[in-house]
Amino acid sequence: MESFLTALAAIVGLGSLIAAAIIGARRTSRPEQWVDPSSQSGRSVRVVPAQAHPPGRGRRGGRKDRDGDLLPPGATINFAAERQSAGIDEILAALDRDLVGLVPVKTKVQEIAALLLVDRARRRFGLVAPRPSLHMCFTGPPGTGKTTMALRMAELLHRLGYLEQGHLVHAMRDDLVGEYVGHTAPKTKRILDKSMGGVLFIDEAYYLYRASDSKDYGQEVIDILLQVMENERDKLVVILAGYKDRMDEFFTSNPGMRSRIAHHLDFAAYDLDELTAIGQLMLEETNYYLSSQAQDAFREYLTSRMAQAHFANARSVRNELERARLRHAHRLAGDLERHWNRDDLMRIEPEDILADDADLFDSAEALEL
User: How confident is the model at residue 68 (pLDDT cuts 50, 70, 90)?
Assistant: First the structure.
């Protein structure tokens, strides 16, 4: 009996060893997993296999060459091929197509793209450098393309591997600042969670700070932003926007914020020819056009509006063209007996360009940047 129990114990022990070996093999064959931090704010955690890391990130949050093994020292690269591989040419082309003028701004964007492209190429040779700071400030009057540029920048940084998702979250003071003690931090962190992996675009950022109000909670938002912009800059890009003079005052009152902004882009107001070209693009998108007489009337309207308060550049152009379409439609639909052809349905005439009701829209245009 004793020998039988000894043999049975040996068999059981051998079975345990075999089971442990099988389990260990399964564990070692299972790919390492990366947890997406942007999915941990009120949503279920999304787990991405190690072989599907987001662009520009490696295991355990470290950066990794997205193009494979390191190149040998004697290898060469071609930046035309690098740009094509990253897919940034179409974004830069879209900027030229969608935004009239703004040459200094577009040049700055091209410089940023070149820096990141070279940084990506250097990593392929094992030339590692600290991640460049990408937080930005867009200054200028309303309607000069700041939001459009922020959207393009988010996409550009995503394609170059510096943002995991490349989305944009638009926020203003009311989205961040609370109304009572303990309310501000949760609101701000909720917006930050939504922004992780993309761009947080804070419009009229100077309203976060109200020096005259000692009970204001905006400073709490600024303190949280300063910490996140420094500690999470590999996961988030913050773009502050507003009028230049007010943003200068904001940075004077918050020097810590100025030191974290690497790129300042100033969006100048459009001149008459640029505004006319913007209007032409808007009309082409909707299959309308101005007759030669209407073109003169439109330029006269713009000249008058540019001298008025709260002029909103491209936004004012868009609003007037929308009103012109209303007048055009009312003019055509009001003549019930006349037969209109295709060109009539496309052509804006001088009587459709009227400035007498422009002041009704000044306050609405001034509300947006």
Answer: low
